[in-house]
Amino acid sequence: MNYIRKAPLSVLLFIFFVTTFILFSFLPVRLDFSKGGAYTLSPATKKTIRSINKLVEITLYISTDLPTKIIPLKTDVIELLQEYRRSGKNIKVTVIDPKKDSKIAEKIKQQGIPELQFSQLEQNKYQTSSFYFGIVLSSNDKREVIPQVSDYQ
């Protein structure tokens, strides 16, 4: 009998949480509960991004088949770039896998983004894999290249 009384309340709570999640997913707001707001742009960074009056294109060249140890860094970088895009109307972010198109791979090598090698121990064997993880920032005729994104923690 008690179960029958709690069922409608449970259904209502479920509907409330799903609706809230759907509504908040469309808002350009991200909540950062990390210590010290580690994943939140500083007010100075947001101000700088908002003051950009020309289109800045940020292209992340990254392979989809990354070594396991690199995947968390990929997630952090993509989230940071998306935060930049949300903070400024003149920021365009594109993510491209150069391994899917040999012409793009050749183009970015000429721009200074190398194909990286990574060795790791998997199933008692050393596995070597190659991948791309670089960024090109461009605005008008200016271009800056970050040949290799890495974590220096």
Automatic annotation (TrEMBL):
Positions of transmembrane segments: 7-27
Record organism: Candidatus Roizmanbacteria bacterium CG_4_10_14_3_um_filter_39_13
What are the top taxonomic ranks of the organism? Bacteria, Candidatus Roizmaniibacteriota
Q: Which keywords accompany this UniProt record?
A: Membrane, Transmembrane, Transmembrane helix
Read off the InterPro entries from this record. Answer: DUF7088
Q: What is this protein called?
A: DUF7088 domain-containing protein
**Which residue ranges does the record assign to the DUF7088 domain?**
37-137
**Per its UniProt entry, which superkingdom is the organism in?**
Bacteria
